[in-house]
């Protein structure tokens, strides 16, 4: 497995190079440049603008600008955000923990709910409970995430007042590390996490349900029943172990999308995370932030696919990673 992992990591290098070229090219093709967001061309001295362009290296050939950007990225220098007036690494450090907490909480909700609903629907197909779960899944597929977020804010934050509608922490709460701080963080995060998690549950529930039904009709299950094996053992040991493999695929993709999957939700809930920061950087042409986040999401996606492949071998020893 170690050899396979190292080979896959080495194979990511040309992909990342290709992604970096695409990201840099798209950023250069966008209207304006990094200087456009710092100064107003209509109210600035042209001589000053020319000096700043030379100082920032914007007059250099494109391939030199790309090489300089890659070199700085490899050294951990992601540039400076001209909107927030701070290094990009420091800005991401302030936001990434919020997004990770939101993503992990929504991921837990997704798999916890999908596992139990998929198991129940697969063990009791075509019953009233199965039809109820199917109805929920159809609604979750049909409802856009932004609409679900607005409805959740109206019901649980405005009408019932159970949770806040925005932010990540109550005012007056001290630094992190205390139980009160954690509860306040959880109270602000639970609603956007529920929106993210419950909408993603539908696909996972249906895949698990259908795979359990299909596996329950296979020969090895019939043989186990003929030998008098308990139904609980058949489902938990034989069927579930095979049916859970599709969820491993989703887990890999979810790990890859942990940082970028909450863009719409973070924006609606005014949740200061990576997703909202990315939207702001695109709107304000904050190129350093935008390009850094895009590369970070690409790395997370490649690592998520690798983790999914490695988990295949853990769940099912018959799958060899050569």
Structural descriptors:
322 residues; mainly alpha; MetI-like fold; 2 domains; two-stranded antiparallel sheet; transmembrane; BPD_transp_1_N; transport
What does this structure look like?
The chain has helices at 2-29, 46-56, 62-74, 88-123, 128-142, 145-159, 179-215, 219-226, 231-243, 245-256, 263-268, 274-283, 287-315, and strands at 80-81, 86-87. It is mainly α and 322 residues long. Helix 5 crosses helix 7 (179-215), helix 7 (179-215) crosses helix 9 (231-243) and helix 10 packs antiparallel against helix 13 (287-315). The chain is globular, with a radius of gyration of 24 Å. The model has no long low-confidence stretch (mean pLDDT 80). It holds the Pfam family BPD_transp_1_N.
Number of strands: 2
Which of globular, elongated, flat, extended, rod-shaped describes the shape?
globular
Arithmetic mean pLDDT: 80
Strand content: under 5%
Order the strands across the largest sheet as they lie in space.
1-2
Total domain count: 2
Sheet with most strands:
2 strands, antiparallel
Q: Gyration radius, to the nearest Å?
A: 24 Å
What is the percent of helical residues?
Answer: over 70%
CATH topology assignment of the largest domain: MetI-like fold
* Unreliable stretches: none
Structural class by sheet pairing and helices = mainly alpha
CATH superfamily of the largest domain: MetI-like
